[in-house]
């Protein structure tokens, strides 16, 4: 599926691919056709794409799935989820209906097809990942089903050739008209106009339990309205089975050193979606990002950076990883190198200039790409850490203040920190505990953000100036800062804008 010009496999290695695996080495390339907006993903894609597309498409789909998971953690209803997801689909994975007249149908559907299969590879490895992937993909499929027009959805369902889904003939509809009408809550006459299907009753236990079907001779008579839930549950159970097959095929991918690192990175990403942060576009308009103003700006910091800042002020010192995590964050909010050096020098106020210059100055300059190898300097130093990196790498040891408090603190210490940040609402603290118990640390952080900014979020929504970026779940400490700063300064300063 990848173009050969991007092949990074050692040519000698490529030549010794096991003959039994030859079908992997010589795939038959062909472009798939996508007559429908919905897809059951029965055929893996075989046309060529570049490795950049491979990675980017998967990352885009991951953002969509992660946001769907976030909606489910927040108990959003189906309608709320659909409304919340609209700008996110638009940004990452727009998929138009046939009737839209869009010229990009093939392009959109190809991306949808490929990204689904790439993530299958990334998430097939463990039962937990398979389950989460199936759940998120099913949510996505259901939303798409709901937003499809009845005629396009029916065409898609007919194309599936579901042998267990039998259309109820007209004479049977007439025979059971009374029973069907009472199930549908309709008048008798309308039963004959609607489509009805019959399936083995054990395929639709939820509909049976909710008494939404008419049962006769082991068959459940399902109205067209409930057809979507049958198709969705078929999608889900097929995907579950296919993921298990994929899991068995995974070891054969090990020999491809282009894909394995990407797939590993993607699966790690499902813990918390990763995001890179562009430090050159970081300072919110109108913000005074100077050493002298950091204490004031720290009211907009997420718990991880707030804790680092408090520890630094208390101890006039931070250990190595704490300095690194915090310096990168400060760089990301737009603090320039000179100001950053001033900040650290002032903060380490119990040591001499000489000691500071010898032991700390170089590291700060290195982070900014002011010193170090060519690569570091050309790349402008390091990028600020995302939540995923902070959550999964270098857990803090005794006396260290880096890491994510939602993951690395006891609930007691976390509560004290959150109270210090202004969170005293018992419901919010209980919600944080529940998020943490489910290992959804970044969701706990988003919950706190929403609580601390609830008035501003409401105002921005009421005024219709909430952007799609502002609606996405926060997965980066610098995004937390920026969003907090912008929301808290709305209307206070003419320079502060809700930017896209
Ligand atoms: Fe910081 Fe992210 Fe943890 Fe929030 S979830 S405290 S932003 S690392």
Automatic annotation (TrEMBL):
Note on how the cofactor is bound: Binds 1 [4Fe-4S] cluster.
Pfam families (alphabetical): DNA_primase_lrg, DNA_primase_lrg_N
Cofactor(s) recorded in Swiss-Prot or TrEMBL: [4Fe-4S] cluster
Protein name: DNA primase large subunit
Superkingdom classification of source: Eukaryota
UniProt key word Transport: no
Record-annotated DNA primase large subunit C-terminal domain positions: 298-481
Gene Ontology cellular component annotations, sorted alphabetically: alpha DNA polymerase:primase complex
Annotated source species: Stachybotrys chartarum (strain CBS 109288 / IBT 7711)
Record CDD domains: PriL_PriS_Eukaryotic (cd07322)
UniProt-listed InterPro entries: DNA_primase_C (IPR058560), DNA_primase_lsu_euk (IPR016558), DNA_primase_lsu_euk/arc (IPR007238)
Gene3D superfamilies associated with the record: 1.20.930.80
Keywords for the protein's UniProt record, in alphabetical order: 4Fe-4S, DNA replication, DNA-binding, Iron, Iron-sulfur, Metal-binding, Primosome
An example molecular function term from Gene Ontology annotations: metal ion binding
Binding site for [4Fe-4S] cluster: 304, 387, 404, 445
TM spans (from-to): none
PANTHER family in UniProt: DNA PRIMASE LARGE SUBUNIT
BP term (GO), one: DNA replication initiation
Function field: DNA primase is the polymerase that synthesizes small RNA primers for the Okazaki fragments made during discontinuous DNA replication.
Family stated for the protein in its record: Belongs to the eukaryotic-type primase large subunit family.
């Amino acid at each position: 599926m990848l173009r050969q010009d991007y092949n990074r496999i050692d040519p000698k290695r490529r030549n010794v691919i096991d003959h039994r695996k030859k079908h992997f080495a010589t795939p038959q390339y062909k472009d798939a056709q996508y007559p429908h907006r919905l897809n059951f993903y029965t055929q893996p894609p075989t046309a060529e794409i570049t490795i950049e597309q491979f990675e980017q498409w998967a990352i885009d789909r991951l953002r969509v799935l992660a946001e769907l998971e976030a909606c489910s953690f927040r108990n959003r209803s189906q309608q709320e989820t659909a409304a919340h997801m609209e700008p996110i689909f638009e940004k990452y994975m727009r998929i138009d209906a046939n009737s839209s007249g869009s010229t990009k149908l093939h392009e959109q559907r190809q991306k949808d097809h490929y990204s689904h299969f790439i993530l299958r590879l990334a998430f097939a490895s463990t039962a937990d990942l398979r389950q989460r992937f199936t759940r998120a993909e099913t949510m996505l499929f259901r939303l798409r089903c709901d937003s499809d027009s009845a005629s396009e959805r029916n065409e898609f369902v007919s194309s599936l050739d579901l042998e267990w889904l039998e259309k109820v003939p007209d004479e049977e509809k007439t025979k059971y008209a009374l029973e069907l009408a009472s199930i549908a809550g309709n008048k008798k006459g309308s039963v004959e106009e609607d489509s009805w299907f019959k399936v083995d009753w054990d395929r639709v236990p939820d509909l049976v339990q909710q008494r939404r079907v008419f049962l006769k001779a082991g068959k459940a008579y399902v109205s067209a309205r409930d057809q979507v839930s049958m198709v969705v549950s078929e999608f889900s159970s097929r995907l579950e089975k296919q993921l298990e097959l994929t899991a068995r095929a995974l070891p054969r991918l090990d020999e491809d050193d282009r894909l394995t690192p990407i797939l590993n990175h993607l699966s790690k990403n499902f813990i918390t979606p990763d995001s890179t942060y562009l430090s050159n576009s970081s300072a919110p308009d109108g913000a005074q990002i100077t050493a002298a103003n950091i204490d004031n700006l720290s009211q907009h910091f997420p718990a991880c950076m707030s804790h680092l800042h408090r520890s630094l002020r208390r101890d006039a010192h931070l250990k190595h990883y704490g300095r690194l995590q915090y310096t990168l964050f400060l760089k990301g909010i737009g603090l320039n190198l000179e100001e950053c050096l001033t900040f650290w020098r002032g903060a380490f106020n119990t040591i001499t200039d000489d000691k500071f210059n010898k032991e700390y100055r170089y590291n700060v300059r290195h982070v900014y790409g002011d010193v170090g190898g060519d690569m570091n300097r050309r790349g402008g130093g390091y990028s600020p850490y995302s939540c995923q990196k902070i959550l999964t790498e270098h857990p803090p040891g005794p006396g260290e203040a880096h890491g994510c408090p939602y993951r690395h603190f006891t609930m007691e210490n976390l509560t004290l920190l959150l109270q210090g940040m202004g969170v005293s609402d018992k419901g919010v603290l209980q919600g944080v505990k529940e998020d943490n118990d489910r290992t959804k640390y970044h969701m706990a952080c988003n919950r706190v953000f929403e609580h601390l900014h609830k008035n501003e979020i409401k105002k921005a929504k009421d005024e219709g100036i909430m952007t799609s970026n502002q609606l996405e779940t926060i997965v980066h400490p610098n995004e937390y800062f920026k969003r907090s700063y912008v929301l808290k300064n709305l209307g206070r300063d003419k320079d502060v804008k809700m930017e896209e």
